[in-house]
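Run: sequence + zinc ion -> complex structure.
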Amino acid sequence: MILKQLVSPFQKVLLARRLCVGCTHPLDRAQRVMALTDSRTLLQCKCKRRYVYDKELGNYRRATFEEERLFIERKKQ
Ligand SMILES: [Zn+2]
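>> structure
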C-alpha cells in the first residue's frame, strides 16, 4: 500500500532553511545525482531522500513521483 505523503508545515520550514526533512542534513551538501533540465537538478541526501534544486528559484523541494521515476529509469541504462 502506498501512503500519500503529506507535506507538513514543519517540512516546509526545513526546506526553506535548505535542510533535509528526514535527517536535517544541509541540502547544499547533498549529492547532485542528475540534471533534470538546465535549471533543475536532482539531489540525493545521505538518507536517500531525493530533492530537486531549482536554480532559477534558488530553492529546494521534494522530488515528485515523476522525477523519481525518471531517475530510476536512467539509472538502469
Ligand atoms: Zn536526509
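>> summary
The pocket of zinc ion is lined by residues 20, 22-23, 25, 45-47, 49 (CB under 6 Å). The chain has a mean pLDDT of 91.
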